[in-house]
Amino acid sequence: MNPTATTSDEEQAPTPNVACHSDMGECPEPAVLTAIAHIDHNDFWLMSDGGYQGPGSVWKDILDVKPLCALTKPSLEPLDSDFATMLSTLCLLMQNCITAGYGLGKSLFGNDNLNPTRFKLRHCLSPLTPIWTMRALNRYLLQVYPFSFELWPLMKERNHTELLALKSTHCIQPVPAYDLTDNLIHPSAYHCFLQGALVEIHFTISHWGIAGVRHNVYSAEIELICLLDVPTPSSCAGRKRRIPLHPTAESLPSKKQAIA
To answer: Residue 72: enclosing H or E segment and its boundaries?
Structure first.
């Protein structure tokens, strides 16, 4: 299993960490890894727009948005033991996929690199689409694709103009997440279906060598999410109250209360 070594335009390309086919001039497809885990209820940003509030310190613009979540142990045996083994495997992959002379920057485990108990994954919301394919793509989307830039749910309606500006060069891509009946989960329902859920998740790992700060950076990209069990509702501490099936004289406000 070899993670993909990639580099951005602003970064100096490090020595490749995976072998390329010299006759094809292309690198092999990244290995797809699989885990069964709980999606962390508290560290959940896998919304349709990643919780984007507008340009700021987290995302400089909507094109930068990468909805993400953290995975924790399933709290089921033998799956818990398997999850611990998987974390150890991810640590080994990071240790063996490095740019020589660079230190550790952003990792799969956030700030918990010494004894990780979870790891983070992300999803690319608006991948770049070659301009010459946009016409054919738009025809396809109009016919069979249920999602569009115009109807994409956003937390802040004021960001809609910014999203629409990407329409001529990008496509919009929902999280490939499926419910218990193998139906694609609608972007507006990620919160209620996925937050705190038990899932089977398929993902790939990428590595960058950041020349400016001489750091190794890692990320895990979501390939597929299959729901295995619905989220457990969080308890709500409040006064217990029995709700009648039909209104009674006691439950209806009096005329005096209604006038007041």
So the answer is: strand 68-72
Strands, DSSP E only, in 73-128?
103-104, 119-122
pLDDT in tens, 153-169: 898 889 999 989 888 88
Distance CA 217, CA 4 (A): 12
Rounded Cα distance, 40 and 84, in Å? 16
Which residue in 238, 208, 235, 239 sits closest to 221, CA to CA? 208
Q: Residue 197 and residue 147: Cα distance in Å, rounded?
A: 24
Residue 203's closest CA among 52, 70, 22? 70
Buried b (16+ CB within 10 A) or exposed e, 99-115: beebeeeebbbeeeeee
Q: What is the pLDDT of residues 202-219, one digit of tens each?
A: 999 998 888 888 998 999
Q: Number of helices (H) and strands (E) in the chain: give both, helices first.
A: 5, 8
d(CA 202, CA 35): 7
15-19, 50-54, 210-214: segment of lowest average pLDDT = 15-19
- Nearest-angstrom CA–CA distance, 47 and 195: 10
> What's the CA gap between 108 and 116, in Å, rounded?
9
The pTM of the full predicted model, rounded to 2 decimals, is 0.74
